[in-house]
Design brief:
- This protein is mostly helical and 351 residues long.
- The chain has two domains: 10-208, no CATH class; 213-346, no CATH class.
- 45% of the residues lie in helices and 5% in strands.
- The protein is built from 16 helices and four strands.
- The chain has helices at residues 54-58, 63-72, 74-80, 88-100, 104-115, 119-135, 189-192, 200-208, 222-239, 245-249, 253-260, 262-274, 283-290, 309-324, 330-335, 339-346; strands at residues 50-52, 143-147, 159-161, 165-169.
- Helix 2 crosses helix 4.
- The longest helix is centred in the middle third of the chain and has 18 residues, at 222-239.
- The two termini are 36 Å apart.
Amino acid sequence: MNSYRQSWSLGWLGILIICLWAGGLSSCTSSEGGDCDKLDLSKIDVNVTIEDLTPALLALESPAQAKALLKKNPLFAQRFAQVSRMPEDTVASVLVKFAQVPHMDTLYGYVKEVFGDYSQLKQDLTNAFKHVKYYYPSFKVPKVKVAMTGVGSFFGRDLYVSEEVIFLSLDYFIGNNKKYKNYRPRQPGYILKRYAPEYIVPSIMQFISVPYNKVNPKDRSLVAEMVTYGKTWQFVKTMIPCAPDSLVTGYTARQLANVTDLDNKKVIWGHFLNKQVLFVTTPYKKKAYTGERPYTAEIGVGKECPGRIGWWVGWQIIRKYMKKFPKKTFQEIMADTDNRQIFNNASYKGE
């Protein structure tokens, strides 16, 4: 199985928070209403453990202690602290400086205020991993380790996912309470608002989808990429079926209303047809529809047409395909590399 991508920036994640963290993703109501999760997962056993490395990091007083911590936690050292990219002495020095910053204790207090004993995070991850194992029985649950990084100022990133381990920098995800304003990532406002607890599990599921989302590397057309991204969002929705579309896509309520409006659907789809961009292969042209942007200026439905509109249209193509071919299993669709054929057979017309 191919490895997952190694690091993550939450530019794709959305602004609106519909599910309260206290309720967890499993308590959310599906955008379609009713009983959103109909699978019997009672016989699927997964064991999620969350190890917090922050106390050990904050207790560091010398480079020797830092090196001992790195030796004790080789995955943390190699994958998150990036010892392979910098000399160990340099990394050890950075970790000690991190521990000596006075306000780190305050920031850790905020992390604990938001996440508590991590029981809600564990519950949401357990539920999502059970769904993955239901569809892919050979899936092995990775270890989950959390830590503070000074919001990336000292080491690490917001999120790292591989087949064997997940590293989560929780200080990125404390949310947008005003009292946290001095401890937020340096990001544009529309991205900054997306660093909140509710988006952790959806973003992890997007990572987990990578080895299952098969592609044809020879087809570099925009529509092929759109279908790939559509399968990504369908994977997230399938593994977290009770998550509202706002958490899957990262769109605000207003943006969702705009892209689901029947007249706007016709405008959006008409743009792709009239501008003849579905089969373009030029990277910068594709990025206009798939890249992270506050809105897609090229499409004339106002500034509320969100960025990555190609992801959204790709998802609608997948949804149409699934309805048209109900005997096709989810796994078969994810494994199908002929995205152009999926597009053709779906016969999506902006409806």
